[in-house]
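A common beginner's mistake is to predict each chain separately and then try to dock the pieces by hand. The better habit, illustrated here, is to supply every component at once so that their relative placement is modeled jointly.
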Amino acid sequence: MALLVVEDLHKRYGKEEVLRGVSFVLERGETKVIIGPSGTGKSTLLRCINRLTEPDRGRIWLNGVEVTSPRTNIYKIRAQIGFVFQDFNLFTHLTALDNVRLGLIRVKGMGKREATERAMRELERVGLGDKADAYPAQLSGGQQQRVSIARALAMDPKLILFDEPTSALDPELIGEVLQVMIELAEGGMTMLVVTHEMGFARSVADEIIFMEKGVIVEQGPPEVLFTNPRVPRTAEFLRKITEFYGESG
Amino acid sequence: MELIFRWEWLPQLGKGLVLTVELTAACISIGAVLGLILAIARLYGRNVVYWLASAYVQFFRGTPLLVQLFMVHFGLAGWGIRLSPLFSGIIAMGLNTAAYQAEYFRGAIQAVKRGQALAALSLGMTRWQTIRYVILPQALRLVLPAWSTELVYMLKYTSIVYLIGLPDLMGIGRTIASHNFRFFEIYAVVALIYLALVLLITFALRYVEARIRVPGLGTVR
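With all components supplied together, the output reads:
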């Protein structure tokens, strides 16, 4: 059974239909990368998966539990799904350590000592053990994003959703965040990543999903999508974005 | 005309000062608790809760404090509800400052970036946990400058309670002056005491502000 199953997801904001029937599955340990032009519902899709945004129609299962069922405790589901935001959203009033600790203490009910040890381990894992006492404003964008990944990791998530994790970063800071993500993928973490980093998509993704105007246009392994896409529109998009962003990163 | 000053005024005024401070502390505390509830009701409440909270804020901000005080003290007495002057003063001013504080709290909560709540919810925190551990700690830091202003206002506004017979700083001053007719000197001393208190509060809160300041969390006015 797949870890995540998304079936016929629809979402409308006023007149605009942002998601028009999106379906896919994500296996345990798999990394899928979602690409596509801006405003095609990629972020909305991620937010529907942990119901930060309520989908209008369609169903989602995590590990066999229906996320979209009204009887499901959504807080328990969210605690199992890490979410990494484009603009980090670290808690401004808390140090890096407290950012990582908060969910452990308040959601998982962990004792302070245990939570501290766990949080420190995660901060060290992303290379920021020495920044535990720094506030978000005292960290660079890349460091903030790594703390936010540590915050997600500490919760022992079954799956981590990345919503354009490097789009708000200065170019020279993108690499350190991607490096952490590559290590996670290699370590067997299940990840769903919205990004424009084609280098990352090509080298790390097990499968790439190309979305446009609220639907999945094409999905498949990177070597197929990049070299021999089935749909002409996919080829056109990949050519343009590779020209624009380059393949590095 | 020669200015005179008598040291024996001070112990009497001191008693009034104690009442003024107690009154201010009582009504500002009531107002803080009620104001926070009202702010949350206006921001997160639906239908009836929202409208009741909004009507409350509009009423207490849209009518004079003195009228509110007289309604509580004399108005309710007409209905058989007789409140002591002290109790009337605390209630009327507590209810009044709650409306103002509610608006300050509301502004500060709105100033907390939207992504903060999203991040908290994404960790599996409930709405209430999100408010308690993420939104309020930031909002309370943001509100402090505006809240300090409100505290200073209330301290000064308590002086109207002499009109319902309370011997606060203003009331005592008035009593002394009506006996010896040294209106200018007495009220000048009263004014200086208020000023000293205002400065003390201002500096104390500035100290608190500096103590709880967090880098990157600016203040809003």
